[in-house]
Amino acid sequence: MRLIGLAVVLGISLLIAPLAAEAQAGKVPRIGVIVPVEPESPNEPNIGAFRQALRDLGYIDGQNVAVDYRYARGRAELYLALAEDLVRLKVDVMVVGSWHPTSEAKKATQTIPIVGVGMGTDPVASGLVTGLARPGGNVTGLAWLTGLEFTGKYVELLKEVAPRTVRVIYLRDPRGLAQVPVTQRNSEAARAAARSLGLTFQIVEAPELPEVTNIFARINTARGSSLIVEGSLFFMDHADDITKLAAKYKLPAIYSLKVFMDAGGLMSYGPSLPDLWRRAASYADKILKGAKPADLPVEQPTTFELVINLKTAKALGLTIPQTLLLRADHIIE
To answer: Is residue 48 situated within a structural domain?
Structure first.
């Protein structure tokens, strides 16, 4: 009788094992994506690049992968809640745009792998990872800029485009001071570049849109001023307002993000966000295949874009040097 019972148990086990394996094999991986600012559209360039990269890697949303998108629409208070929502969904990996949302996602989970996209100039200094070569925790991904000298490049470009510049104003979002000393070091690089060109340099902070408006009005009274607009999520969310103010007060301004150019900005220079999102898909792919974020080095940007808007330059009474136009990746006419 005992032998018969054992045979029954073995028979059931043999039946269950293939079913369990089949169920495991049929599990569809789930990717959670937090988009900080961009509009909810599959055609939006950054998310479009991410979607295409997933397809190139063989992932078809709704078939062999489930991708859940969460949009913060520029509202920083939503970052943590959106990350917690994805934790409840038990996603296998999070892909998160920018350093602040990535930091909030890290608060929401210490176990789910997180891929940060453009997570600041120094992810080590801001506490996202313990090292670039070996991040050491559940966060890895792509940094934003390769070096602090990059900020000084903005000053050089402004002087080249607007030769009458005698004063450079650095418009900073005080929310970014959570990255101290990173943010301060960025502005100091710009200050050093201004000093080398014989220009005065001033930092102004704008925590809310009314302050931005007041700042632009005050700058207008200081002739020979040009503007560096920090690439914060808050400024991105108000790109239309900021570029319109620059046009109203005839201020040459340079931005680190192409989104300002879509809103009519004069000039931008910085890493390509679509390229960063495209590369983030390969991180997600490696993690879904078993790689640990702690072992995946944080990468630096490899593609940079100089964009110049000739229409805006004309409205400001500026003539862009031919040498600069030849270096531009995109020219808006």
So the answer is: yes
Q: For residues 267 and 277, state if they share a domain.
A: no
Q: Looking at the structure, tell me whether residues 325 and 267 fall in a common domain.
A: yes
Q: Cβ neighbours of residue 232 under 8 Å, at least 6 residues apart?
A: 172, 173, 175, 176
Residue written as tokens 């996603």? Answer: 91
- In the three-class reduction of DSSP (H, G, I as helix; E, B as strand; rest coil), residue 119 is classed as coil
**CA 323 to each of CA 161, 252, 274, 319: distance values in angstroms, whole numbers, following the listed order:** 11, 18, 26, 12
Q: Is residue 72 part of a domain?
A: yes
* Spatial distance between the Cα atoms of 64 and 162, rounded to a whole number of angstroms: 52
Q: Residue 253 maps to which CATH number?
A: 3.40.50.2300
> What pLDDT digit, counting tens, does each position of 128-157 carry?
999 999 999 999 999 986 555 678 899 999
CB distance 140 to 131 below 8 Å: no
Count of domains for the chain: 2
Residue 10 — very low, low, confident or very high, per pLDDT cuts 50/70/90?
very low
235-240: long-range contacts (C-beta < 8 A, 24 or more apart)?
235/171, 235/173, 236/36, 236/37, 236/74, 236/260, 237/37, 237/73, 237/74, 238/74, 238/209, 238/212, 239/263, 239/265, 240/264
Give the DSSP letter of residue 27: P
Instruction: Check whether residue 49 and residue 38 sit in a common domain.
Output: yes
| Cα distance between residue 176 and residue 172, in whole Å | 8
* Widest pairwise Cα distance in the chain: 101
Contact 193, 160 (CB under 8 A): no
> What residues contact residue 76 under an 8 Å CB cut-off, 6+ apart?
100, 175, 233, 234
State how far the Cα of 61 lies from the Cα of 67, in Å rounded to an integer: 6
**225-251 pLDDT per residue, tens:** 999 998 888 888 889 999 999 999 999
Is the same domain home to 309 and 281? no
From 219, 277, 292, select the one nearest 249 (Cα to Cα): 219
Same structural domain for residues 249 and 162? yes
Q: Provide the domain limits for residue 50.
A: 29-144+273-302
| Phi, psi of 229, deg, nearest 5 | -105, 115
| 323 in the same domain as 251 | yes
In a domain, 6, yes or no: no
